[in-house]
Amino acid sequence: MSRAEPITALILETFRLNGALLSAGDRLVGHLGLTSARWQVLGAIAYAPQALAIAHIARNMGLTRQAVRRLVNEMVADGLLRLAANPHHRRARLVLMTKAGRAAYAAAMALQTPWAEALGQDLPPAEIDAARRVLLAMRVHLSPDNDTTPGDPDALDEHA
Amino acid sequence: MSRAEPITALILETFRLNGALLSAGDRLVGHLGLTSARWQVLGAIAYAPQALAIAHIARNMGLTRQAVRRLVNEMVADGLLRLAANPHHRRARLVLMTKAGRAAYAAAMALQTPWAEALGQDLPPAEIDAARRVLLAMRVHLSPDNDTTPGDPDALDEHA
DNA sequence: CTTTAATTGACAACATACTGTCAATTCGAC
DNA sequence: GTCGAATTGACAGTATGTTGTCAATTAAAG
Questions:
Q1: Mean pLDDT across B89-111
Q2: DSSP letter, residue B30
Q3: A62 vs B128: CB contact, 8 Å cut-off?
Q4: pLDDT at position A143, please?
Q5: What span, in angstroms and rounded, lies between the C-alpha atoms of A111 and A102?
Q6: Cβ of A33 near strand D (distance < 7 A)
Q7: Residue A125 and residue A80: Cα distance in Å, rounded?
Q8: What domains lie within chain B, and their CATH numbers?
């Protein structure tokens, strides 16, 4: 009856998949001392070509500085990250992985690859990519100021 | 490279769309005294053919009893909901909308329809539905015990 | 150089949702 | 009817993320 109906159904399914993904991610890396949120922080650091400060990581992840600050503080206390002086900014220290942090991230990635392959084994890559583009179009419509590949610090167009 | 890559990209996009939808929903219904979470609770109550208890609402929404309990308590205090005796269960009172709750929900729905239509105006309904099915397939893969129409109170295939 | 604006980290408070635990209640097996 | 399992609401604690506010620092304007 309304054009709103398919969109509404997709929105509700997005909420449910989000929750299912987070809990599945927590189960996947929980035994490594990680959570989904901590894993994402490590990913942002690993992906960046150079060391970043907290505010920079937050921008790359699409979160607030405060959320990242709390995670970083806890991960420093747990020995996964360390803070180093920033030659360009006395206040904004650089966030670096410790040896334990790198090991945990490598272990998480080793688990993630087969997990993701199993998750998509029954779905053609073309359909997966088509779904991703639909979600991207919706998100861009919601916040037009965002670029098309947020979370990606440098490769703005092609995350190749 | 790997079959994991398109799935991983879709997962990250799901996280971002989820956040964008929640903040957009909060902005849409904030002036009605609602939030995205409260709106969803009202929707679960409005959608059900009969009055539900807290645990039942939680199952329909895919949340925990505790999360719904807190929301319901606050919404009762705010006059949006009220609790009524359950003839079939002394402990599990039924959650009902007050007049104010029904008015707020109606106002939210009146806003949601044109908002959703605008959100999907550039996307063919077939693509939207295809994306929804991909997300559904992923979620079912993550939690095989879930039925295919969560949020539907009666179409349960009796996972008892 | 001085003033102003923007960025950054920190603290507080709040919103949402989770797990764990408990007693009360209902339901099923016997 | 009785007993044990399951359900339900409640409480406590934790995790994640938000907004608001502040001082320190950096960058820009004059």
A1: 93
A2: G
A3: no
A4: 65
A5: 14
A6: no
A7: 34
A8: 19-142 (1.10.10.10)
